[in-house]
Amino acid sequence: MRLRAKPAIQLSGPVDQAARTLLGQLLVRGDVTLRITEVEAYGGPEDSASHARHGRTGRNAPMWGPPGRAYLYFCYGVHWMLNVVTGPEGRAEAVLIRGAEVVAGLDTVLQRRRAAQATPQLCAGPGKVAQALGLDKAFDDHDLLAPAGLELRPGEPPALILAGPRLGIGFATEEDQARPWRFADGGSRAVLQRKALHPL
Hints:
Elements: H1 15-22, E1 26-29, E2 32-42, E3 70-75, E4 79-85, E5 94-104, H2 106-113, H3 126-133, E6 150-153, E7 161-164, H4 174-178, E8 182-185, E9 198-199
Antiparallel strand pairs: 1-2, 1-6, 2-5, 2-8, 3-4, 4-5, 7-8, 7-9
Helix pairs in contact: 2-3
């Protein structure tokens, strides 16, 4: 049996801590490399904003671990959304990748995004991130820490981290809506609704 090497990226700890750790890390698929600039943390069944709030289902099964897996879902019948499961196994904690910067493979990203030129907002938004990486349902439950397909690799953490409420969760309790679990690289322009974020 082949043992997997210990991952360089530590995904353990509370989901909000793991989310901050993911800022600045790299997502790599083929010739495309993206640096993560914005994320949102989602807890287990106790988090009313989480897909795990109703328990384990066929759709959200990858959320329950092990950590380092991808959880993809189709949003509004238009966009795929990439989440990184942070564990521990059985806890259903995951981090939505909300934004990124292109490090390599710009021509491929422009083609996939059907964009004429690069802008700071090219991959600002979770649907744009998945589109830039060419992701679909086939990557659901993919092992991001294994050297094949879509990989999560170590990158440069941001000098400043911003935090604020998560977006698009009007169905959640007031307490969960107010939870400051959206995090962003304070030095990046690939961040949405920046005015709602404040330095940690």
